[in-house]
Amino acid sequence: MLKFTKRLAAIALLCTSLAGCATTNFGGLGATGADADRKMAQSANITSLTQVIRTNPRDVSALNLRGTAYGQNGQNAEAIADFNAANAINPNFTQAYVNRALIHRRMNNLQLAMADYTRVLQIDPNYQPAYVGRGSLYRQAGNLNEAMADFEQAIKLKNNDAQAFYNRGLVYQTRGMHDFAVDDFTMAIGLSPNSATPYNARGVSYMAQNNIKGAADDFSDAVRIDENFAEAWSNRACALELKGEKEEAANSAARASSLNPSLSGKKGWF
Predict the structure, then answer these.
(1) Predicted TM-score of the model (pTM)
(2) I need a labelling partner for 115 at 20 to 30 A (CA). Which of 3, 122, 162, 237 fits?
């Protein structure tokens, strides 16, 4: 019982580990075979947009689109340069600020990302995605009151945004308010049923509520959706062990450690 209690005490650590998944790729962690095709398409887009920009260097929409294509192609410096150019031409072009914030987050320039989101909200206080983005940064920094305020506003502006409910659920989870967290994760799952991360997060809160079967089911759904979700495999191992399904727990733990060697010997985040 003491071991299980200690495991539950580590739930807050899981919330931190989920932050990256929540804000960069809500739908799951695994790469797919379509990545090469996507990169080829983005390269073609970049070539076409470059021709447009050569004809009209002050076309902020083209700069923003090319910056987005650069970002999706992993060319962060080029993306930042295009968003900078768009913002220099039109200081009130909100889309370029939001897109630049996403690249800054990828590069771990979190203060710059925060500044971009805040600038967007100064221009347009009703720009809902900026509240979700800034709230996620507040949550990562441990500023839970500010994060909650941003997610509340995001949900008020758009009550069918899975990411907003998911991220607010993580705040509730960090605070140990698991009933509220489960409700928010359930909303996120209903709005985005093919996203693995909210299943994994709800499973964590179910574990805290000692709902082991519900947790095991959620972790199983998470790895069904994203078979490369190492943390969910590790959590599934923990839940199945507590259910007494030793062999399947061992298989899940082995799968987790094969995907992420740092998880070797660990059984879940609890």
Answers:
(1) 0.81
(2) 162
